[in-house]
Amino acid sequence: MQRRILSVLGALCLAAATLTAPAIMPSAGSTAQAETVSSLNISPSGANDWDCAPDAEHPYPVVLVHGTFATMDVNWISLSPKLKRNGYCVFALNYGFENGISGAAHVPDSAAELRDFIDRVRQATGANKVDIVGHSQGGMMPRWYMGHMGGAKHVNELVAIAPSSHGTQGILVPSATGVKIASNYAGWICDACADQVAGSEFMTELNSIGDTVAGPDYTVISTKYDEVVMPYKSQFLQGNSARVTNVLLQDKCPLDVSGHAGVAVDPVVHRWVLNALSTDGPADPGYRPSCYL
């Protein structure tokens, strides 16, 4: 019970930081509505150096995709500079502005923004493919781009952290009394929330072609203490083990109590991300990360 409380508190802290931070405009594919929200465009440390040139050891630029309600500077405050220090060209975007909230638009519309951003990254770096690292919706939405928009040919690997791969049976949302678990988003302000309900029309179409498509490798990193995308096993992807690795944090680090928000800044998760990006294929399921800071 104590672990569950800690996870929920972590989620609430991130939500509070996101909701109280200045609204931030997307870096690419911005809508007219988003342009009225803010003139700010804050990149996380290490990201969006458009002169960065991939080298032989790190040939694929890494594109970071935030989750619902988040922004790139909040979601990737620690992972972005770590990737940069490890030699990667790192890029991040804000997307999906709806009713002044980031990551809230209909998922296929957000996927179109991701497509345009990846095209820009490829043009700037000369790389034909990118690696994608996404959290929550950001770990699921790229699959629409890859499988339903022809983007698979431009993606080497998707590393999905706590993704809403098959939807969720409940999400923490704001309410008059603080927060509540919601499973019905009809009439709410967030199209992306409705899309991410298990069994939604969007989820049915997303997964109608299977969990994976030919070309990219897939790594999913999940925590059993996820209080947002539930059940946590719904995050895992089905596919050939040569191309798909599903990681449960507690299998290697049983004392890790990170919840849905906490995994984005968890050093153990970051080690798994680096393993996935440096491995020919998805993350090595036999990898044993250090479980300490």
From TrEMBL:
Matches recorded under Gene3D superfamilies: alpha/beta hydrolase (3.40.50.1820)
This protein's record includes keyword Transcription: no
Gene Ontology biological process: lipid catabolic process
Transmembrane segments: none
Signal peptide: 1-23
Stored InterPro entries: AB_hydrolase_fold, Lipase_EstA/Esterase_EstB
Keywords: Signal
Domain of life: Bacteria
Molecular function, one GO term: lipase activity
Protein name from the UniProt record: Lipase
Species whose genome carries this gene: Glutamicibacter arilaitensis
